[in-house]
Amino acid sequence: MRKRSAAHPARQITAAEAAGLVQSGMRIDYGGALCQPDEFDRALAARRDGLHDVKIRCCLSTRPRAVMEEDPQGNHFYGLSLHFSGYDRRMHDAGRMGYLPVNLGEIPDYYRRFIEPAGVLVLRTCRMDAEGFFNFSAANLWHRAAIERARCVIVEVTDGLPHCPGPGNAVHISEVDYIIEGDNRPAPVLPNPPASDVDRAVGRLIAARIEDGACLQIGIGGMPNAVCTELLNSPARDLGVHTEMMTDGIVDLYKAGRINGARKQTHAGKLTYTFALGSEALYATLHRNTDFQCLPVDQTNLPANIMANDRVVSINNTTQIDLQGQAASESDGLRHISGTGGQLQFVRGAYASQGGLSFICLSSTYERRGERKSRINLHLTHGNIVTTPRTDVMYVVTEYGIVNLKGKSVPERAQALISIAHPDFREDLTRQAYEHRLLPRGFTF
Q1: CA distances, 330 to each of 183, 268, 382, 397 (Å)
Q2: CA torsion sign, 119 to 123 to 128 to 133?
Q3: How many angstroms separate the first and last alpha carbons of the chain?
Q4: DSSP string computed for 361-409
Q5: Which of 195, 307, 346, 436 has the fewest CB atoms within 10 Å, counting from its CB?
Q6: Annotated catalytic residue within 39, 106, 244, 330
Q7: pLDDT at 264 over 70
Q8: E strand or H helix at 91
Q9: Known catalytic membership, residue 244
Q10: Is the pLDDT higher at 441 or at 126?
């Protein structure tokens, strides 16, 4: 635990005074998701002409960042994101932000061993409670580890965040250098677009495999969320949750009485997660609700902790898969779009869980410039990043079916994946598989 000298207790300062602590060449830490500061961000942007080479670590930016908007040429500030939001992606496309490759559950260890300590770390938090703690809200993540090594810790307090119970989900005033007043805006929401017919088809296929007592991890996106909707109409009961991201779909299942965590081996009776993004209703449900536990990301995402629960079901999205089963979920060629996140760790943790299942889901096609293209291909797009290796992929699901790749040879994998590709592309994929010796002629698999 980081401790300040008793002779120099934390003191209240203005956002402008806090921004004045930043020096050229510093690395600044904004934390992730709901914990990113707003008042400090605006005050730091106002100092841009007096600063250069300031690098700002962040993750899942939920609002436009003033340091990016007020420095359009990128002469003063550069972002380093541990997982892209849509806004982070746009900044990357503009040359304003880079990606730090991570397995999300390993980030606390990176902060303790490898990542250069922040010159200034500033987090948006709930107001201090009677015991002197500032709650991180729905974003426990790696903030404890970052605080341990930061040279200066600042909290930007607000009334706009839900207070979320969970061990280690707070910083004590004895660890804080400065306190600044936030703007009290409500927590930013993440819209939930309506599920498409393809999303619902995939959701039905996966929901049919989920049994009583399963422990769910639901990834980000419309397709994994559609599984929750389909589970509302399934017979599955006594479900548990041990997930990275808490979503509206999971909360809907909780409100319907389908989730009680009664059969979990760890945190029995609790829904465990490390961050949440979604609607105002989601945040209202999490606020001071002890049924939910917001944990550090190494407790939720390390495979050894995932596998400690039986019947873990991991459900994640991908954007492209090749005929050998490599899943590319974070880039479009050389253009980075999101991040590795916890996908690989949950795939591995679910596989190692007693009776566990992992599902990688995708639509069979997508549209680009008016042309329909297959997401299942002979090989990945040039430059595409492999998020989940072929050796780790278990079930792959499209609207045309579900196939298992574990224990399958390359010819068996190619044949299985072609069978769930869009019918318009199966003949061409089969021809390519023969031409490149993924399928041998004259044999049946």
Answers
A1: 33, 33, 13, 18
A2: negative
A3: 58
A4: E--SEEEETTEEEESEESSPPTT---SB-TTT--EEEETTEEEE-TT--
A5: 436
A6: 244
A7: yes
A8: helix 86-93
A9: yes
A10: 126
Q: Which of 438, 430, 347, 441 is nearest to 387 (CA)?
A: 347
Judge whether 417 and 372 are in contact, CB under 8 Å: no
Whole-number pLDDT of residue 179: 98
pLDDT in tens, 83-134: 999 999 999 999 999 999 999 999 999 999 999 999 999 999 999 999 999 9
- Map residue 198 onto helix, strand or coil: helix
Q: What is the pLDDT of residues 418-427, one digit of tens each?
A: 999 999 999 9
Q: pLDDT tens-digit profile of 129-165?
A: 999 999 999 999 999 999 999 999 999 999 999 999 9
Please report where in the chains the tokens 């008016």 appear, as a residue.
Answer: 370
Q: What kind and span of H or E run contains 1? A: none
**Residue length, the chain?**
445
What six digits make up the tokens of 100? 């730090």
